[in-house]
Each structure stands twice: as structure tokens, then as C-alpha cells.
């Protein structure tokens, strides 16, 4: 087993990984920026090392500083968490070259699956359904127009190296393709250092269904069922569920088999996620693979009983999976709300500042993943997610009721958060019916904000 692991991340995922390492009798080394000197992940780790200034480029994205910290502490492995360098093949390659185990797939696999146009070609070859579109990257806007004319409008322009909704534009005619191509390419170049683009047919208002997979170094691959991540705003997820409500057993089996096939085609190792869209006719299509642990992994843990982070550590140590596909059984239903420090009345603008007081919920079926504590600072330099509240029940309705109670118990003062909107979601009739698609928030946000304001919520922008 591993003896010492460096966690190249911050926030709640760093805290989660540190705790898992300590539970497995593995020393946990955290790294931090000058802005995070008093952050929880620096307090609970075996040792904490400052790796640079407050901006991510000076610290959490500084490959050389992280590698040097790991070498200085004689760490066996580095866990990248999610975000930052978790899907950066150069970082994985630097770990490999320095004899440090990267807790994730090989650098070549990240290259193969991180480039979305290359991943698309690989899936076609493997027989995994993909959305109709270009055969790889397109060289310019005019080639994108030619392809869009051929496959039919609307289309989605996507950055090959994109993620988190960046480098994406919808286009409903030729002019929108030309305008969107330039804007999305420039955004992708700025965010990812790669402006390469490809074109897909736009599946309007699909369901966003993803499958969690685990793969060991001996070639064993299993999936842990699916999550419905369709409650999104600007491609950012707000609520996730497992399993997906209303998905037939036949479709679940077909998608699970396709997810395993995709992972095997990529020669994948460790935890990853295969993401699909499902259209109105229940046809599913591969859209991308996230070569890391996902933010929403707790809902899968809650319904399968599989500790995904622990399995990551075991796989990185060279151990085989201790269970087969037949051993994976889904029990009950789980829902996760991502609580972010944002002002919902100011177009969800980040709301950094000092947390004056927090109280998190507890009780049957409730789990909270967070790095907050009373008096801590939410930094303006990083992602605004501050907590994940997860509720499990024997049925979806029980999970919803427990989530209502959990959100009502939660108190976070000093900063604005999305918690009130997510609480109202748990009472929304269309949400309660389940089977919603990615247009849900767009169709209901104004109504939810109006209810919140009428109930006494603040609207600072008016």
C-alpha cells in the first residue's frame, strides 16, 4: 500500500482525500497557496507545504513546485483531486518521469481522452454511439459551416481541450457558426492554451447522464451505475442524483456496457466518468470522458456503498479491484446539492468573504463534504463551491424529504450562497416528477428567484 501521498488540491476534495489517506494509515501531505494558509486542508494534513502565491498559476497550477514538494517529502504518489491539474497530461507525465505515482490514468490516456475530438474518433472505432459531427478537429470557421450545413442545424461548437462549459457555443445558422467559432476558439485558447475546435449536432434539451467507472492495472473495469446531472446552469451542475429517475433497466444496461467499452478502449486505469446525453427518443450518445474523480461522486458512493477515493488509492498501489460488475448493486436513491458562494440575484456572481457562522445538518442519510469552518475565508481566487450536501433515502421521495430538512438546518452567514434556490428546487413540482432535462433551470430560474424574493430573500441588484 502507499505510505505517503501529496494532495495537489484544496477545498473540500482535498479534505476528503486527506481523511481517506489517514483512514488507510497513509501520511497525507497538503500543499497550499499564501491565500490558503489557514485553510482546513492545511490544518488536518500530516504536513502542509506552501507552494506559491494566491493565484492558481502561482500555486495549484505550478507543476514544478508541486513536484518538488512531493520529492522533498518523499511521497509515493500525488492525488490531483478534481479541477486544477487533475486532467493535465503534462502534470501526469511529470509525475511519471520523477517516479511518483499519479493517482489517475496514464498521461497518454489523458491526452487521448482529454482531447475531445480525438476521444470522439476513439469511441467511433470502439463502437460507442457518438453525436453526429465532424471527424476530428476543424481548421477554421468555414470548414465548420460546411460540416454544419451537412449534419443540419442547430450545431454545437466545442473546444477539443475544453471543459466546464468553456469553449462552447450553440449555432442555429451559418452566421452564428462563424461568430461562435471565433469566440469559442479564443475562449478555449485563453482558458486551456488550445483553440482547436470541432462541431457536433446539437441535441437540444437532452438529459445529461454519466456513468462512474473504476479500472485497475490488471485490465478489470466496472461501472458503478449512473448519475443524472441535468440540473445545470450554463453547463455548471447544481444538483445531481443517483440513480437517474425513470431510466429503464434496458437503457441502463446498454449505457453501462458502453461506458465499460469506452474505458477499455482508452486503456483506462483508476476512477473516471463517461458522460452521455440522452435525447427525447431515449437514444444515448457519448460526449466526453472526465479522466478524474467527479465533484458528484458522493451520490454514487451513497447508493453503491463503494468508497471511490479508497478504491483510487488501492488501484494506485497496484491492487486489483476487489469486486466484479455482478457485485455492484444499487440501493436506494441519493441527491447532492452543490452549495456555492454566489449571489443568485447578481447573475450568480461569486461572493467571497469571511464566513461568520456555519451549522451543517446531520441525521439519518445525510452527508456533508466541506472545508468551511467558523471564521474561515472564502477566497476570490478559486472556485466558489463551498460545500456539498448529500441526502440518501430508500426511495427518491425520502431522499428529497431528507434534503429539504438538511438544507433547512444548514446555516452559512457572512456570504451569499445558492442554498435558498436549491431548497426551493426540492419543492418544485417538475423536479419532483423527475426525468427533467438540461433546460430545467433555464425554464424555472426566474420563478424560483421570484419565490425566494417574495419570501424575504435579498435582491441586491434591484
UniProtKB/TrEMBL annotation:
All residue ranges annotated as the Biotin carboxylation domain in the record: 1-446
Species, as recorded: Emergencia timonensis
Residues annotated as domain ATP-grasp: 120-317
Highest taxon, organism lineage: Bacteria
Aminoacyl-tRNA synthetase keyword on record: no
PANTHER family: BIOTIN CARBOXYLASE, CHLOROPLASTIC, PYRUVATE CARBOXYLASE SUBUNIT A
Stretches of the chain forming a coiled coil according to its record: none
Oligomeric and partner information: Acetyl-CoA carboxylase is a heterohexamer of biotin carboxyl carrier protein, biotin carboxylase and the two subunits of carboxyl transferase in a 2:2 complex.
GO molecular function, a single term: biotin carboxylase activity
Transmembrane parts of this sequence: none
Protein name: Biotin carboxylase
EC class: ligase
Entry EC number(s): 6.3.4.14
Gene Ontology biological-process entries: fatty acid biosynthetic process; malonyl-CoA biosynthetic process
Function summary: This protein is a component of the acetyl coenzyme A carboxylase complex; first, biotin carboxylase catalyzes the carboxylation of the carrier protein and then the transcarboxylase transfers the carboxyl group to form malonyl-CoA.
Keyword tags: ATP-binding, Biotin, Fatty acid biosynthesis, Fatty acid metabolism, Ligase, Lipid biosynthesis, Lipid metabolism, Magnesium, Metal-binding, Nucleotide-binding
